[in-house]
Amino acid sequence: MDYETVIGLEVHAQLLTKSKMFCSCGTDYVSAPPNTHVCPICLGMPGVLPVINKKAVEYTVMTALALNCTIPKSTKFDRKNYCYPDLMKGYQISQYDAPIGRQGWLTISSNGSKKRINITRVHLEEDVSKLWHREDYSLIDVNRSGVPLMEIVSEPEISSPEEARDYLVMLHTILRYLGVSTCNMEEGSFRCDANVSIRPKGSSKLLAKVEVKNMNSFKAVYQAMEYESKRQRSVLEKGGELVQETRGWVDEKGITVSQRGKEYADDYRYFPEPDLPPLVFDKAWIEKIRAKLPELPEARKERFMAQYGLPLYDANILTGSRTLADYFESCLELMDKGKAKLIRNWLLGDFSRLLNATNTDIETTQVSPEHLVEMLNLVDKGTISGPAAKAVFEEMFYSGKRASAIVTEKKLSQISDATKVREMVKKVIANNAKAVSDYKSGKQQALTFITGQVMRTTRGRANPSLVKEILIQELGGKKIA
Amino acid sequence: MKLSYEQVKHIAWLARLGLSEAEVEKFSLQLSNILENFDILKQIDTTNVPPATHSIPLQNVFREDEAAKSYPQSEVLANAPRQEESCFKVQPILE
Lengths: 481, 95
Hints:
CATH topology of the domain at 5-42 in chain B: Histone, subunit A
Number of domains of chain A: 3
Radius of gyration of chain B: 22 Å
Strand order of the largest sheet of chain A: 6-7-10-1-11-12-13-14
Oligomer: heterodimer
Shape of chain B: flat
Number of helices of chain B: 3
Order of helices and strands of chain B: HHEHEE
CATH architecture of the domain at 5-42 in chain B: Orthogonal Bundle
Structural class of chain A: alpha+beta
Largest interface: A-B, 52 and 34 residues
Helix content of chain B: 25-40%
Strand content of chain A: 15-25%
């Protein structure tokens, strides 16, 4: 029988606030010693009173708006009761039947075609403590407990591992554009669980729903979804039966393993959080937040293609991060708009190469758009040659110095004096008899080689087009196209 | 409405309480009495009354996003019956 895969994704993103959701403890706990970002409120002491962090609500509303959700007139928090020591109170403050956003959507592009994935809900809750399981006991660090956590749930409309990855990448990019979360997957500020099931093609009835946890990268999500949809098919093909369960992804082995069966429906006994008065949204406040929404990745990508004539592939990369897209446009503000492709070449070429090599981000680079443009203007004016520009840029990247300073310091200005260039060309011709005779017998590559030799003797400073011109003259005017 | 034996056992399990057979019977009666009182409340006609989740007339109580000093680690752990590596130490947790 032919089956189709049905995936729903649940993303948890920590919000980028300074303080926790319901108390003033700081959220910069990642490299802090255990239990140092803790107070009686996040410790769940009797008699304490939580108070809602306004910024966290604002960020959640902003995300809900960016995901085309409906924002209700009023909302509230609820207690989710469960018996697990990752929350000292014995319950998590979350949202049950009145999430801040509902019925939204985002658009993904998989294999060149667009697809809308509906979003069920966006709600706000608190993160939980970190647990370390030892042989016969467990240790609890409460630092993370109470950090604002936003949950975004998709409808089960994702139908392949590719779509699951594309959905996550898009959501990740949107949250980064909004600046509401660091979205650092390694540090756990962007986490994903998946519900995967299969069903006979065309049927609307899902077979057993399997929840997959513990996927810590886009790649892991892709692999886990691929593994799980294959596993479920093979269970059925072998005449077995699928059970509703929770499975954990084991990255090293590339498999999922059963963690626990779902014999009972979860019994969280939600009820309205009596310590937190309800929220009633003022329309003006919502509109104020809406006005703060930046141009989102999908729209920006399309504008880049239309406005700068960039191909889809380039527009995709350039708008993949807001910082990169902003950088690109800052450069263009200082230059002729027709230079879009030149800027693109530098950003996706040498710049990206150096960022990758140093494992740094364009956000923290020492080369500002002004500095890059200044360097490109030096090339334009003929002050430095193209090859020298690469060296200058590298120096700018590592030292933070401006191009003009580097050119003076390293004597990198371009040699465009025809007499000087001719002198050097003659010398190279004299020293490369073999290449010269190759060229004269029609070998085109020889010319490139001799040009390279001239550039080398000048450490890339000679004006390349002048070199070529003089070289051809000196070699007897035999011009090869 | 009387709570069944299974319902009481389930509620006790959710609260991680071990009840003797006699206690199950005892609490079954007590909890049922409480629920009966809700049945009395249910007789009130609330057709035109919007549902309320809170009993005090307050809304939109916020704090600004400002971080303040947390408690010293020693105080945080002061009440912990068992601790290790500056963490709370608890019984092993089985999924």
